[in-house]
Design brief:
alpha+beta; three-stranded mixed β-sheet
């Protein structure tokens, strides 16, 4: 019998951060096999088991499920797998791609997923407001890494960042990272985007991937990450073939998310600052995993405006039309 790594993938993609191979297991069952790469930027190890259990305990209802991966089984012909192979994780999901993939490929438009994202917003709020647990504290990895990177400036991109935005703005980013890292009470996904939401076409159940960035932190980290991801989706769509008004209507997903989240949503200022921090982390990841390119250069050039306006350009505008974002 063929080993899991020998089976043909229906979808396969990756960077130096990680590689994902998706294998069909049934009409509505796909195994996403994710192998971490050699990366100093992206977290590779999952949170401790007590933290992961919290995602299974959330009363999110049948319409939203947090998808916690399991360790991949090793081929019997290789009883002593290499260390890197032990880190292969498998998600069991009802589709081969996320809603983010469907949107950017032009197979769907954002408004087709507003019902799903509204329920995800409610489930994320439930997660954030769940009772305190005895699980060991685990800070969100990307935020701690970004804080240290901003303070130490250890590489060419960090030096380029200082030259482009100036020392004062860089110091402001470092303070925002310190402030965000000091809030540790909630269980958070650590990252949230259309790319981690997979929908079952039969009943519209949403499966939200839980990954290596999960841990304890401020709720605004998840809310800000979602806003930043939607803004990035607009930028990517504008550079591609699918950029009509309906295809750019990502603000409809933001409105659905915040409506679903409801009362108790983090304040606007911490959300905006978290979105800026997430954008800087994204650029750091792109530089490390993909390398320099025109998109990265353009995004770096926009950072002074984002910092000066405390992230307002990353948050969808209200009442400005379907494709408007604050500027």
């Amino acid at each position: 019998m063929a080993s899991p790594t020998d089976e043909p993938a229906v979808v396969s993609y990756g960077t130096r951060a990680s590689t994902t191979h998706v294998v069909r297991r049934g009409p509505h069952l796909f195994h996403w096999r994710r192998t971490p790469g050699e990366s100093a930027v992206r977290a590779a190890d999952l949170p401790p088991l007590p933290v992961l259990r919290l995602f299974g305990e959330q009363p999110a209802g049948s319409a939203v499920r947090f998808a916690v991966p399991r360790a991949a089984e090793q081929p019997s012909r290789r009883p002593e797998p290499r260390p890197a192979e032990r880190r292969v994780l498998v998600y069991e999901l009802p589709d081969s791609v996320s809603i983010g993939w469907h949107l950017l490929a032009g197979a769907a438009v954002p408004r087709q997923y507003t019902d799903v994202v509204l329920r995800v917003g409610a489930a994320v709020r439930t997660l954030h407001h769940s009772p305190a647990s005895t699980a060991p504290h685990r800070p969100v990895p990307w935020l701690g890494g970004l804080r240290d990177w901003l303070s130490g400036r250890p590489d060419a991109l960090s030096e380029r960042l200082v030259r482009r935005i100036g020392g004062d703005r860089c110091a402001r980013l470092a303070r925002w990272a310190e402030d965000a890292a000091a809030v540790t009470g909630s269980v958070v996904l650590g990252t949230l985007s259309p790319g981690v939401i997979v929908v079952d076409g039969r009943d519209r159940t949403a499966h939200v991937l839980v990954g290596a960035e999960a841990g304890h932190g401020a709720p605004e980290l998840d809310v800000g990450a979602f806003a930043e991801a939607l803004s990035t989706s607009v930028d990517v769509a504008l550079a591609g073939a699918h950029h009509g008004p309906d295809e750019l209507d990502y603000p409809s997903l933001w409105q659905a998310f915040v409506t679903g989240y409801g009362p108790g949503r983090p304040g606007d200022e911490p959300v905006r600052r978290a979105a800026v921090l997430r954008r800087v982390h994204r650029l750091r990841s792109m530089s490390s995993h993909i390398g320099d390119n025109a998109f990265l250069q353009d995004q770096v050039d926009r950072l002074p405006e984002l910092i000066d306006h405390e992230g307002r350009p990353l948050i969808p505008a209200q009442g400005h039309g379907a494709t408007a974002w604050e500027r």
